[in-house]
Amino acid sequence: MNHRCILIGAPVQEGTGRLGCDMGPSAYRTAGLREALTELGFPVEDRGNVAPAPHRDLVHPNAAVHHLPEFDAWTRALADAAYAASGDGMPIFLGGDHSLSAGTISGVARRAAEEDRPFFVLWLDAHPDFHTLETTTSGNLHGTPMAYVTGRTGFGSFMPAVAAPVRPEHVCMIGLRSVDPAERAALKDAGVRVHDMRMVDEEGIAPLLRAFLSQVQAANGILHVSLDVDFLDPGIAPGVGTTVPGGATFREAHLAMEMLHDSGLVRSLDLVELNPFLDERGRTALLMVDLAASLMGRSVLDRPTRSF
């Protein structure tokens, strides 16, 4: 991970049912993300906030779906920004709700395909976000990005075609504890590697993550990490509109980030679903910055890099 860090704000909030995620990029900057990365020795470039592409007139037959033109516009703009930045360094996307990952992942996956490298995604989230436009009942489109980037049917002409769909068996989800029946069936059908919080409790987060990182390493793969605030227990990270009790602890989250750093496989990172309006004096923003710093190499003691 000896890359220049490129910060890209994604003030997306249309994918949720409540306002506030558009303030996320500013909160990460205020919480000192750039300074933390600089202290670790990385050159940092802040490219500011992405603006959505021009809207198309889109109306889906599923009446629950809302803000589809905005979702499409953000996806197109972020895919272009992610593709460009991933050729220049390590992009870190500052969200914004999780619908932004439809653009960020599709953009970096396109870059990986051009480099002829297998592409993998680590999805750290309470939810799999594996609905399509047809299966969502809430209509909140932050519940669809993983279905979209893995090429699931159900998006049709309403969304841009994914240039390089992510192979479902190259996706690992850790921390799930809120999954709808339609998503459960789709995940099983697709063959996504899924670890809910029961598995984390029974086996520990380290063995689960180590097995996935070994798969990425063996394939000479490129890894994208998508870190949702609600992966964390709301007791330590209250600044999110989708709180689900029983999330990852402070220690589990930092261990995961340090293991990711040791692997040397991470090429891009999403920090999503931070809603500063719901936070407590910046508590969640500061924790997310600390986790990003752990992923980039901050640790209590220096340890030799693990060989997978």
Task: Report on this structure.
With 308 residues, the protein is α/β, with parallel strands linked by helices. The protein has one domain (5-295): 3-Layer(aba) Sandwich (Arginase, Chain A). It is built from 10 helices and 8 strands. The chain has an 8-stranded parallel sheet, with helices on both faces. Helix 6 links the parallel strand 5 (171-176) and strand 6 (193-196). Helix 9 (250-263) packs parallel to helix 10. The longest helix is centred in the first third of the chain and has 19 residues, at 68-86. The radius of gyration is 17 Å and the shape is globular. The two termini are 16 Å apart. The mean pLDDT is 95.
CATH hierarchy: architecture: 3-Layer(aba) Sandwich
Q: What is the name of the CATH topology? A: Arginase, Chain A
Number of domains: 1
Termini Cα gap = 16 Å
Can you count the beta strands? 8
Largest sheet: 8 strands, parallel
Question: What is the 3D form?
Answer: globular
How is the secondary structure organized here?
Layout: E1 5-10, H1 24-30, H2 33-39, E2 44-49, H3 68-86, E3 90-95, H4 101-114, E4 119-124, H5 145-149, E5 171-176, H6 181-190, E6 193-196, H7 197-203, H8 205-218, E7 222-228, H9 250-263, E8 266-272, H10 283-295
The gist of it:
Helices cover 36% and strands 16% of the residues. The chain is built from ten helices and eight strands. Strands 2-1-3-8-7-4-5-6 form an eight-stranded parallel sheet, sandwiched between helices.
List keywords for this structure.
single chain; alpha/beta; Arginase, Chain A; eight-stranded parallel β-sheet; 8 strands; 16% strand
